[in-house]
Amino acid sequence: MKRINEEQDRSERPVKSAQGPNPMSAYSNVQKALRMHPRRWVVTGGAGFIGSHLVEALLGLDQQVVILDNFSTGHERNIQAVRVASGIGADRLMVVGGDIRDPEACLRAIQGSDVVLHQAALGSVPRSIENPMATHDVNVTGFLNILNAARAAGVKRVVYASSSSVYGDHPALPKIEENVGRQLSPYAASKYSNEVYANGFANAYGLELLGLRYFNVFGPRQDPNGAYAAVMPRWFSALLRGDAVTVFGDGETSRDFCYVANVVQANILAATTTVPEACGQAYNVACGERTSLTDLFGLIREQVVQYRADAATSRLVHHDFRRGDVRHSLADVSKASRLLGYQPTHSIRHGLVETASWYAQAADASKAAA
Predict the structure, then answer these.
(1) How far apart are CA 232 and CA 217, in angstroms?
(2) Among 264, 270, 282, CA closest to 351
(3) Is there a contact between 36 and 62 (Cβ–Cβ < 8 Å)?
(4) Torsion of CA 23, 27, 32, 37, to 10 degrees
(5) Contact 99, 70 (CB under 8 A)
(6) CATH code at 334?
(7) Residue 187 known to be catalytic
(8) Of the residues 27, 160, 187, 307, which is catalytic?
(9) Parent domain of 163
(10) Helix 76-86 and helix 49-60: axis angle, to 10°?
């Protein structure tokens, strides 16, 4: 889909920075250093939404990358998109088809590597409530397999995806890493278990383990299909099709939505930090902005109208609240800023511009293939 009033849009499009350009940032320095001294990286779940963005960024920095994925929630099309975007052949990207629940597959992928970015997981609070054993098997046992494989292969640095869900019922806002409440779902418990095990492995085996508590990540390639799809891809897809848009609850639930480019930055900074006290820590990865679901709908609709004018008349359809959902979420990212040099480059508004463009193109491709 082409934008309506495309010429006007080009002149008014915001810059891609929430903080303003900073050529001497920690991330810029790390990128330069990596190009000079490439490493071999393993990205578990590299065919998924976040994982594929990590792979793309690393290939763009001239790194060697190994993907470990069983393609249960990831997609071959994401890997193909990365290959096209990066313009690379098979020499710097290897795909290992395997499950993190298989210790041999984990070791096969990690052997000979320098760092692991562990993204593979079974997401979704509702799915974990329906099937807690599967969530535990993938998110906890699978995580232990990755740590064991890293230990056996002599890979010291592992950066792993945690979640803002670990804060549970702690009422304070913004969320500070040291203040964690009771987890409200098996998914949240599995992610908090990862942090507990990471501390144990770091102390017992000397591994350098850094956890990243993601706050509602969004962006291109996030799958809108399936019963457990996240809110942003569901709403983009529905508005572009002209379907009803549903929300769980009264719409006043709020989240700290974080564009995927910010998550990529946090992973690479965590993987390369030389600050001794930075290891063995968990960090919030977000923007430090709180947006209600009602306001989010307005922001998404504002973007979609540029591709489909009749989306302007769309309204939210309210359903009952879901079990296990946290009411409000807002991150304090000062710890990540202080110890890692993390500075989010995309606000929610800037991220939505790029996300809307991707979903509009995907909708066109789907129509052409039908």
Answers:
(1) 9
(2) 264
(3) no
(4) 170
(5) yes
(6) 3.40.50.720
(7) yes
(8) 187
(9) 6-369
(10) 20
In this structure, is residue 209 part of a structural domain? yes
Start-to-end CA distance of the chain, whole Å, equals: 15
Tokens of 26: 């920690």
In a domain, 358, yes or no: yes
Whether 300 contacts 235, CB under 8 Å? yes
Instruction: Give a yes or no: residue 162 inside a domain.
Output: yes
Residue 369 tokens, joined: 């293939």
User: Quick check: 331 and 256 in contact, CB under 8 A?
Assistant: yes
Q: What is the pTM of this model?
A: 0.90
Q: List alpha helices for the chain, DSSP H.
A: 6-12, 26-36, 49-60, 76-86, 103-110, 125-130, 132-136, 142-153, 186-205, 231-241, 260-272, 293-304, 334-340, 348-369
Q: Which residues of 231-260 are buried (b: 16+ CB within 10 A; e: fewer)?
A: bbbbbbbbbbeeeebebeeeeebbbbbbbb
Q: Total domain count for the chain?
A: 1
pLDDT tens-place values along the chain, 370 residues long: 655 544 334 333 333 334 433 434 889 999 999 999 999 999 999 999 999 999 999 999 999 999 999 999 999 999 999 998 888 765 799 999 999 999 999 999 999 999 999 999 998 888 999 999 999 999 999 999 999 999 999 999 999 999 999 999 999 999 999 999 999 999 999 999 999 999 999 999 999 999 999 999 999 999 887 665 688 999 999 999 989 888 888 888 899 999 999 999 999 999 999 999 999 999 999 999 999 999 999 999 999 999 989 889 999 898 888 777 778 889 999 999 999 999 999 999 999 999 999 999 887 776 766 6
Under 8 Å between Cβ of 59 and 93: yes
1 is a domain residue: no
